[in-house]
TrEMBL record:
It holds the Pfam family PPR_1. Transmembrane segments: none annotated. The lineage of its organism: Eukaryota, Viridiplantae, Streptophyta, Embryophyta, Tracheophyta. This is PPR repeat. It comes from the Eukaryota. Gene3D superfamilies: Tetratricopeptide repeat domain (1.25.40.10). It comes from Musa troglodytarum. PROSITE patterns: PPR (PS51375). InterPro entries: PPR_P_subfamily, PPR_rpt, TPR-like_helical_dom_sf.
C-alpha cells in the first residue's frame, strides 16, 4: 500500500512540479560522501572552528554533482547539529533541488533527529514539508507513509502520523489535523490519549465545539479512552463563554465519575468557575463544601474561583468567609487570592480594607503585583483622594516597581475627570518620556477633559495626534468628539466627522446616535431626527428609552405635543418602557400647552408605574396651574411635594409668586418671597419682575420702586 501511495504521490507532484524524479539514492551514496566530505582533513571537528570549516565544506559541496542537500544529512548524522539544519527551508530546497530530493533529504533528517530523541526538531522539519504541501494545495496524507519509507526504518507510521497531527493542531489547522487523526485510526494505528487531548484542546480553543464533541465521542467508542484531562477539557468547553451550558458541564462531571475516572482539582476548579459565571455562586460554594466533606481534591484555585464569584456579585463578606476557609483548610492563599479580594474591596470604595489586605499579604511574604496596586490607585482616584493616589504612585517607583501603561492611565483619567488638565498633561509627558506609547484609553481621557471644558480645538488636536501615532480610536473617543461638535451647535461638522469615522471602520453605537439626536433636538432640528432614527434601525440598533426620551423632548420643545404623544404610545409597542425623564418631558409639554387634565393623568400613571415624582415634575405641574391661575391646585401640589421630602427650588417659588402676582394677591406673593429668601434661595430677575409688575398694576409705585432697588 505504501509503495502504491508513494507512486501516486510522485506522479501528482510531478505534474505540479516538473522536476526530474530519478535522483541518486541517499542510502547508496551516503558512505562515499561521508568519506569525501565529512572525514577529509578539513572535515567536521569539535568546537566552533570545526563547525565553521564544516560549513565551508558544505558551501563547496553546493557545486558538487551529488545532491546538494546530501552534506547537510551527513553532518546531522554525525553531529545532530540542529543550528545548521534549521537554516534549510523545505520550500527553498524543493525549488532549488527538486521536490523528490528535498523530500528524501528531510525524511532522512527526521529519522536522524528521531533516533537522537529530538522530537521537537522532527516536528519542525515535518512542519516545513506540510506547509509546502498546503501552499501547493496538495493533500499531505498520502505523503506521510512516503516519509516513513524514505527514512529507511528510522521512523514509524505512528511517529509520523502523531507528529503530523501535533504540528497541524499547534498551527490551528484543525481540519487537516482531524483528517490526519482519523486516517491514522483507520490504518489501525494506536493513537495515544495525550495526542487526542491535544487535538481536543485545540478544537475547543478554536471554537470548533461540534468537532470537539465528535472527537470526544469517538474516543469513548473507538479508543483511546478519555482520561481526567479529556473530561476536564470538555468541562472547560461547556463552561466557556462561547458555549456556556452549566447543565452539560454537570453531566460530563457525573459521566466522568461513573466511568471510574477521578476528577482532579483542575476539573473541580473549572466546574466551580462555570457555576460562578452562571451567577450561581451559592451553588458553587455548596459544591466546594461538599468536596471538602468528602475529602476530594481541591486547591487554592478552587477557592480563588469562588472568591472572584462573590466579589463580582458584590458579596464581599462571603468572599472573606471563603478566604478564611481557604486558610483553615491548610491551603496557602496566593497572590491571586489577595489580588481578587483587594480589587473587590477597592471597587466598592473600601480602600481601608484593601490596604489591610495588602499589609497581610506582605506579612505573609507574598509580593503584591502592580495589578493589586493599580486597584488601590483606582479606588483612591474614585474617592477623589488624588494626593494619596499620587503619593502611592511615586512610592511604588521608589520601591522598585516599574510603572506600566495601566497605572499611568488610571491617574491621567482621574485628573481629567477632576478637571486638572495641568496635572494630567504633566503625567502624560512623563509617560511618553519613559517610552510608553499612550493607548486609546489615555487619549480618550484627555479628549474627554477638553470636550467637557468646551475646548473642542484642543480635543481635535489630540485626536489627530492619536491617529498620527497609529492608535485606533474607540467608538467612545469618537462619541466624545461628536458630542463636542453638537454642544457647540456644529451638527454639520459632527456629520462630516461621522463619515470619516466610517472610513476607519468604527461603527456608531446607540450612545453615539443618542448624542447626535440630542444635538439636533437642541438646535431645534427635530425634523432631521427621523432620518437618523431610520438609519439606526436599518443597522439593527433598536432604539432604547434614552433615544425615545430625546425624541419626545425635542418634539415637545417645538410644540409638537401630539407627535410626542404618538411616539410615547408607540414605545410600549416595541417593548420599551418609559422612565421618569420620559414622563417628565410629556407632562411638561402638556402643562405648557395648558392641557393640565391630561398632564395629571400621566402624572398618576407615572406613580402607578412605581416612579417617584421628582422636583422637576412637580414644578412643571405647579407652573401649569399657576399659568391657568388655579392657585388652589398649584398649592396642593406644592404641599404634596414638600410632604414627600422634596425641597422646592427658586424656580418652584417663582412659579407660585408669579401666579399670585398675576392675581394681584401681593401679600401672599411677598410672603412666599420672604420664605424663599429664608431658605437661602436667591430670587431671580423673573421673580422680582413678577412682583414689581403686580404692584404696578395695583398702582403701588412706591413698593414697586423699593423692589426694583433690590
Amino acid at each position: 500500500m505504501i509503495k502504491s501511495e508513494r507512486g501516486l504521490l510522485r506522479r501528482a507532484l510531478a505534474a505540479r512540479f516538473p522536476l526530474p524524479l530519478s535522483l541518486p539514492s541517499f542510502a547508496s551514496s551516503l558512505s562515499s560522501f561521508d568519506e569525501q566530505a565529512c572525514y577529509s582533513n578539513d572535515g567536521v571537528k569539535g568546537g566552533a572552528a570545526g563547525k565553521l570549516r564544516n560549513a565551508k565544506s558544505i558551501d563547496s559541496c553546493a557545486r558538487d554533482p551529488l545532491p546538494a542537500l546530501f552534506p547537510v544529512v551527513a553532518v546531522a548524522l554525525r553531529t545532530l547539529n540542529w543550528t545548521l539544519v534549521q537554516e534549510v527551508r523545505f520550500s527553498e530546497a524543493a525549488a532549488s533541488h527538486g521536490f523528490p530530493h528535498a523530500l528524501e533529504a528531510f525524511a532522512m533528517l527526521m529519522g536522524v533527529f528521531s533516533s537522537g530523541g529530538m522530537q521537537r526538531e522532527v516536528r519542525c522539519l515535518l512542519a516545513g514539508v506540510l506547509g509546502f504541501c498546503r501552499d501547493a494545495d496538495c493533500s499531505s496524507i498520502g505523503l506521510l507513509p512516503t516519509l516513513v519509507e524514505l527514512s529507511r526504518g528510522a521512523l514509524s507510521l505512528l511517529q509520523v502520523y502523531g507528529a503530523a497531527v501535533q504540528v497541524l493542531a499547534e498551527h490551528l489547522l484543525v481540519e487537516d489535523a482531524l483528517e490526519t487523526y482519523y486516517e491514522a485510526k483507520r490504518m489501525g494505528l494506536q493513537i495515544g490519549v495525550p495526542l487526542s487531548n491535544l487535538l481536543l484542546k485545540v478544537l475547543v480553543k478554536s471554537n470548533n465545539m461540534d468537532k470537539a464533541k465528535c472527537l470526544f465521542n469517538n474516543m469513548k467508542s473507538c479508543c483511546p479512552l478519555p482520561n481526567v484531562y479529556s473530561y476536564t477539557i470538555m468541562v472547560h468547553m461547556y463552561t466557556s463563554k462561547d458555549i456556556f451550558d452549566i447543565y452539560e458541564a454537570g453531566k460530563i462531571l457525573t459521566e466522568m465519575e461513573m466511568s471510574g475516572v477521578k476528577p482532579n482539582a483542575v476539573t473541580y476548579d473549572t466546574y466551580i468557575r462555570g457555576l460562578c459565571r452562571a451567577g450561581d455562586v451559592k451553588s458553587a460554594w455548596e459544591f466546594l463544601q461538599d468536596l471538602q466533606s468528602r475529602g476530594l481534591p481541591c486547591n487554592t484555585n478552587c477557592y480563588n474561583a469562588l472568591i472572584l464569584g462573590f466579589c463580582r456579585e458584590g458579596e464581599l463578606e462571603n468572599a472573606l468567609l471563603v478566604f478564611q476557609e481557604l486558610k483553615q483548610q491548610r491551603l496557602t492563599p496566593d497572590v491571586h487570592s489577595y489580588g481578587i479580594l483587594i480589587d473587590g474591596f477597592c471597587k466598592k470604595g473600601d480602600v481601608l480594607n484593601g490596604y489591610n489586605l495588602l499589609d497581610e499579604m506582605l506579612s505573609s511574604g507574598i509580593i503584591p503585583t502592580m495589578v493589586s496596586y493599580s486597584s488601590l490607585l483606582h479606588a483612591l482616584c474614585m474617592k477623589g483622594e488624588m494626593g494619596c493616589a499620587l503619593s502611592l504612585f511615586n512610592d511604588l517607583h521608589s520601591r522598585g516597581y516599574a510603572h506600566d501603561l495601566v497605572s499611568y492611565g488610571i491617574l491621567i483619567d482621574a485628573y481629567c475627570k477632576h478637571g486638572d488638565l495641568d496635572a494630567a498633561s504633566k503625567l502624560w509627558q512623563e509617560m511618553v518620556q519613559n517610552n510608553f506609547v499612550p493607548d486609546a484609553y489615555s487619549y480618550t481621557s484627555i479628549i474627554f477633559a477638553h470636550c467637557r471644558n468646551g475646548c473642542l480645538k484642543e480635543a481635535l488636536d489630540h485626536f489627530e495626534l492619536m491617529l498620527n501615532n497609529g492608535v485606533m480610536p474607540t467608538v467612545v473617543t469618537c462619541t466624545l468628539i461628536v458630542d463636542g461638535f453638537c454642544k457647540l451647535h456644529r451638527t454639520v461638522e459632527a456629520f462630516e466627522f461621522l463619515n470619516e469615522m466610517h472610513k476607519w471602520g468604527i461603527i456608531p453605537n446607540i450612545f453615539m446616535y443618542s448624542v447626535i439626536l440630542n444635538g439636533l433636538c437642541k438646535e431645534g432640528k427635530s425634523v432631521c431626527t427621523w432620518g437618523i432614527l431610520g438609519a439606526m434601525i436599518k443597522k439593527g440598533i433598536v432604539p432604547d428609552v434614552v433615544v425615545f426620551t430625546i425624541l419626545i423632548d425635542g418634539l415637545v420643545k417645538i410644540a409638537k405635543v401630539e407627535e410626542a404623544l404618538r411616539l410615547f404610545a408607540g414605545m410600549s409597542k416595541v417593548g420599551v418602557m418609559p422612565n421618569i425623564f420620559t414622563y417628565t418631558s410629556i407632562i411638561d409639554g402638556l402643562c405648557k400647552n395648558g392641557r393640565l387634565p391630561e398632564a395629571l393623568i400621566y402624572f398618576e400613571e407615572m406613580i402607578r408605574g412605581g416612579f417617584v415624582p421628582d422636583r422637576i415634575v412637580y414644578t412643571s405641574l405647579i407652573d401649569g396651574y399657576c399659568t391657568c391661575k388655579d392657585m388652589l391646585k398649584a398649592v396642593e401640589l406644592f404641599n404634596k411635594m414638600t410632604q414627600s421630602g422634596l425641597v422646592p427650588d427658586a424656580h418652584t417659588y417663582t412659579c407660585l409668586i408669579d401666579g399670585y402676582s398675576k392675581l394681584l394677591l401681593m401679600d401672599v406673593a411677598v410672603s412666599l418671597l420672604d420664605e424663599m429668601m429664608k431658605l437661602d434661595l436667591s430670587p431671580t430677575v423673573v421673580t422680582y419682575t413678577s412682583v414689581i409688575t403686580g404692584y404696578r398694576k395695583l398702582g403701588d409705585w412706591d413698593r414697586a420702586y423699593e423692589l426694583k432697588l433690590c
